[in-house]
Design goal:
heterodimer, A: alpha+beta, seven-stranded mixed sheet, 26 helices, 23 strands, elongated, B: mainly alpha, three-stranded antiparallel sheet, 3 strands
Chain lengths: ~650, ~400
């Protein structure tokens, strides 16, 4: 509208006034903003700089390579293999589900893996998702080739445990597996390494017990990450230290031979160096493939293992506790000798039974042995002799001798579930059952029945101590990082050499005298002749009802009620080197089921390979040769077993 | 008075108008926009084509539009005020019913290559309308209740439409921008005091009705206020923006971390880093020195608006330029308060700096009007004398 010049002047003046006011207010506001800027950027700068670094830098662990496990001669038992897997980064994939479906079109992905990956993809976690694990190289290269069509998908390589001698060492070395929540709970301050995805730790066996040595220590890399946690670049890195390598005392060749020789029997074999306690072989049969557990065992495979009545998962060599039967007789004899209750020429009349405290105890030989001295009692395994001398020696002396020879105690080895066994005495029974010890208990114990329980490992220690006269202690770790683990010379047991010699002589006759229970499994090579003792331990008595039905023999019983067969031995007799124990669960008679195996394994340990036929009695050589030809043995350098063509 | 101005004290015409443009303002605008290009280049991780290049094209287009607007006599714009206001209102209505939904609000019209935000246009057409109104109104009637109610309706109508989108930030800017024009037109202080008191009461009632069925704001708006009052309460959710923005700003320190070295933006910790929060990237990479310098550049632009207004004696021209300056200031003040944790996150971009077409164009149209006022400061606006070119 038209205004007078006066109005215009007034209006302009008013606007000037007001605009100056508004300008003042604006200036004040700018001052406030400037002050705030100064406060945040100058006064609080250090604090915010720190927070920005916190955002930006993430510390990632570099898992170290797990230490390797070798046998005593440097043959690989547990190694690491490259494990290819395919991961997908959600941030780069865009539509992760679509990409996953496309990926499934070019490489095989199991439905379970697919489902898990899709579930992970729906979560908002910044970590890459592992889509498929343990892929063959061809699949990985297929993924790499199709990379442009698969945004966010990348192949990755990690290390995973592998056991090239699968079943041979399952019980000794054990296996590794992914860290479980239970594993983490057990530790007070868990190594942060354990939280890295797919990290493997020892679950049982040496893998578990030597975990600290094998694991190594993690390296670090400081990386710059973006808001979704994706690594943009590496700032610096410090490599970790690989785990220590271990050499076991076990000889892979002997171990494999023993494993193959025992076949699918439910059995345990222990081979021990009597001079220093080195375990040369430690077998529990049947075995299982530890690689299955590393890869994540399927329900079907696991059920097959747990439902097998031969219990493949149990380590019978150290975990199994068996009545030692007649193999215990050396202990009773030595206890009586050392206690002065008998001399090496004491003899006892065996009518086939022994009566004490109103009970009658039978000898295995119904007709009796007649007059028996110490040497014959071992050779022919007369029971009555031991019933008699055990009462003269007393249970406490016998138990003490048993412990002196390594029974009733836990031998500390890096293996799982090692049993204490049981060496009963009066105090133990009072403590355990609140009952007095009875004469019958002593009689039963004298021949390794009743309460007495020993593991094959303990029997091996006993045999080694009898052979050497020294308190040898079993050991499994030969070297760590190529440094030999020092082994102290075993202390002398302090037993009368004459008494030891008498017992050893009896054991020699067992294996070499025509009347000996182990004569059929003798070694004829003079430089390797062995001493041994058979044992047949009852699992339960043949019941009256069964007797009435005509069951008188062991092999008429169902498998799981048959006697255990045992054989302990060492060789060479004149210069003992190796002790061997064979326990065949429900195998029947020790001289038939256990002694031949023990001889073969002993010869294998002595010669370092398939036993030479010259060591066998001429009449047996054909049979042995055939047996060895059909034995599926692993080549010394590892790999799957093949039939040897001798 | 420079030699040039002295020589052409009469009404310029044709291309001679170019000599009367405020070239210092043109340089200032180019300088600020260039800082914007630099920052967009930086937050794109060194990618020119992602954000910086389109933004440059927009600025160039805006510059052309600015010159065009500047060359048109100011009387023409005054006569167009009603039309512009009407069109803006219609567009707001269109956006209400057919608009694109983004970020939980209806704000855009998709016209193929161009995306229109009518609420941004409204900020300047409202100022034009109010300036035209007070130019028409007898100065002596300015504070009469009836003549106060009319501009209030002019302001409240678009404000309500924008609030319905819902876009709290723009609504607030329309309200304050309109109030600034009314204030400068000389409306009595008493009205402002009364409205201020009512506003305080309204704010109180907003908080008191919270959680009842009659609550006045959306839940997300309440949450924004909560977040503003205590951002640490929900550091990964509602408070995330403010916390990360403050970290970016604060970690810049005196001189910043260097161009392209800002970790907060480069690693995506900063949300909306190329739009509303672009200033934080500048503050992170160039520090207090850079951020404060930019603030001074903005202050200088507003100062030039004031100078242009006060050099003029025409009521429409004065009110228009002051209104545009006030609006520009509001952008700046609300955005900076927001990113520095002094105000809730309400979604107001940084003019000339933030990525976005409508804001860039409307701001340049606004400065075109400022330039037009300057060019035509000696012409008889009301008489309509002086040719378009």
């Amino acid at each position: 509208m038209r205004r007078s010049s006066r109005d215009t002047e007034d209006s302009a003046r008013a606007i000037t006034r007001r605009s100056l006011l508004l300008g003042g207010a604006m200036t004040a506001m700018v001052a406030v903003l400037g002050t705030r800027m100064r406060y945040l950027q100058v006064e609080k700068a250090d604090e915010f700089r720190l927070l920005a670094e916190d955002n930006r830098v993430s510390i990632r662990l570099i898992p170290p390579a797990r230490g390797l496990i070798y046998d005593r001669n440097g043959k690989l038992i547990a190694g690491n293999e490259q494990n290819y897997r395919v991961v997908i980064s959600r941030e780069d994939a865009g539509d992760a589900e679509d990409v996953l479906h496309r990926l499934a079109g070019i490489i095989p992905i199991s439905p379970e893996d697919m489902e898990r990956a899709l579930k992970e993809a729906r979560k908002r976690s910044p970590l890459p998702i592992i889509v498929a694990d343990r892929l063959p190289w061809e699949d990985v290269s297929t993924v790499a080739l199709n990379a442009p069509a698969l945004p966010g998908v990348s192949p990755e390589v990690g290390l995973s445990r592998v056991y090239p001698r699968d079943t041979d060492f399952a019980h000794v070395v054990g296996y590794v597996g992914p860290v479980s929540d239970r594993d983490l709970e057990k530790l007070e301050t868990p190594d942060p390494l354990l939280q890295t995805p797919k990290f493997q730790i020892g679950k049982i066996g040496t893998e578990l017990w030597m975990e600290d040595t094998l694991r190594g220590s993690a390296g670090h890399r400081r990386v710059e990450v973006n808001v979704t946690g994706r690594v943009m670049r590496e700032l610096d890195r410090e490599e970790g230290i690989a785990g220590g390598n271990i050499r076991l005392t076990i000889d892979a060749v002997v171990q494999n031979y023993a494993q193959a020789r025992i076949g699918q029997e439910s059995a345990a074999i222990v081979v021990m160096d009597v001079t220093n306690g080195d375990l040369i072989a430690c077998i529990s049969s049947p075995s299982f493939d530890p690689n299955l557990f590393v890869r994540g065992i399927s329900h079907k495979d696991y059920n097959t293992l747990t439902e097998n009545d031969h219990r493949p998962l149990a380590n019978k060599a150290v975990q199994g506790a068996y009545p030692p039967g007649s193999t215990f007789k050396m202990v009773t004899a030595l206890a009586a000798l050392e206690a002065g209750a008998i001399t090496s020429s004491t003899s006892v009349r065996c009518p086939g039974y022994y009566e004490v405290g109103g009970r009658r105890f039978a000898c295995w030989k119904g007709g009796g042995h007649g007059t028996v001295d110490l040497a014959r009692s071992l050779t022919e395994s007369c029971d009555v002799f031991y019933y008699d001398i055990s009462l003269k020696a007393g249970i406490d002396n016998i138990a003490a001798m048993g412990r002196r020879l390594g029974m009733g105690m836990r031998h500390d080895l890096p293996m799982s579930a090692i049993t204490d066994g049981l060496m009963p005495d009066k105090a133990w029974k009072q403590d355990r059952y609140k009952q007095d010890w009875r004469i019958g208990d002593t009689v039963n114990a004298s021949i390794g029945q009743g309460y007495v329980l020993t593991s094959p490992l303990q029997l091996a220690v006993m045999t080694a101590r009898l052979a050497s006269g020294r308190a040898v202690v079993p050991r499994l770790i030969h070297m760590v990082n190529d440094e030999p683990v020092p082994v102290a010379e075993a202390a002398d047991l302090g037993l009368n050499p004459d008494h030891l010699a008498a017992v050893r002589s009896g054991m020699f006759d067992v294996a070499n005298s025509q009347r000996g229970t182990g004569y059929g499994s003798r070694i004829v090579d003079a430089s390797m002749r062995m001493a041994g003792k058979s044992g047949t331990s009852q699992v339960r008595n043949i019941s009256a009802a069964e007797r009435a039905r005509g069951v008188t023999k062991n092999d008429q019983l169902p498998w799981n009620r048959r006697d255990h067969a045992l054989y302990v031995c060492y060789a060479p007799y004149d210069k003992p080197k190796y002790a061997v124990v064979v326990v065949v669960e429900h195998g029947g008679g020790g001289s038939l089921a256990a002694a031949p195996v023990a001889r073969d394994v002993l010869l294998c340990a002595l010669t370092g390979g398939i036993p030479p036929l010259s060591a066998y009695p001429a009449a047996q050589r054909n049979r042995i040769e055939t047996m060895h030809r059909e034995l599926p043995l692993r080549p010394p350098e590892g790999g799957p077993p093949v039939l040897t063509r001798a | 008075m420079s030699f040039l101005e002295y020589r052409v004290k009469t009404v310029p015409a044709g291309l001679a108008k170019a000599l009367h443009l405020n070239w210092a303002l043109v340089i200032l605008l180019t300088a600020v926009a260039s800082v914007g290009f630099l920052m967009l280049y930086s937050v794109a991780g060194g990618d020119l084509s992602k954000w910086a290049e389109p933004q440059m094209k927009r600025f160039a287009a805006g510059m052309v539009i600015m010159f065009f607007v500047a060359f048109v006599p100011i009387w023409f714009w005054r006569n167009m005020a009603g039309v512009a206001y009407g069109v803006s209102i219609i567009l707001l209505l269109v956006v209400e019913f057919f608009g694109k939904v983004g970020m939980g609000a209806q704000r855009w019209i998709d016209l193929g290559p161009i995306v229109l935000q009518p609420s941004e246009m409204m900020k300047f057409t409202l100022v034009m309308m109010l300036a035209a109104y007070y130019d028409w109104l007898d100065v002596r009637k300015t504070s009469r209740p009836l003549y106060v109610v009319i501009p209030v309706i002019i302001i409240v109508l678009p404000t309500i439409l924008v609030l319905m989108q819902p876009n709290l930030g723009t609504a607030l800017m329309l309200l304050l921008g309109g109030a600034a024009v009314m204030f400068m037109a000389g409306v009595s202080f008493w009205y402002f005091l009364v409205v201020g008191a009512i506003g305080a009461g309204a704010i109180a009632s907003v908080f008191l009705t919270r959680g009842t069925p009659w609550q006045l704001l959306h839940d997300y708006q309440y949450r924004r206020i909560d977040t503003f009052l205590d951002p640490t309460a929900d550091p990964l959710g509602a408070g995330y923006n403010i916390i990360q923005a403050k970290i970016a700003l604060g970690s810049g320190g005196w001189t910043g971390r260097g161009f392209m070295q800002g970790t907060q933006s480069r690693l995506n910790f900063l949300p909306e880093k190329h739009t509303d929060f672009i200033f934080t990237t500048l503050a992170e990479e160039f520090g207090f020195v850079g951020a404060f310098s930019l603030l001074m550049l903005y202050a200088l632009i507003i100062f030039f608006c004031f100078v242009t207004a006060l050099q003029n004696k025409d009521r429409f021209s004065q009110l228009l330029v002051l209104g545009i300056g006030a609006n520009f200031f509001l952008y700046l003040a609300v955005n900076l308060s927001m990113v520095m944790g002094l105000a809730p996150v309400v979604g107001v971009p940084m003019p000339l700096l933030s990525w976005g077409g409508t804001v860039m164009i409307t701001v340049m149209v606004g400065f075109g009007l400022v330039q037009s006022v300057r060019v035509h400061r000696y012409s008889e606006v009301t008489s309509g004398r002086g040719g378009i070119l």
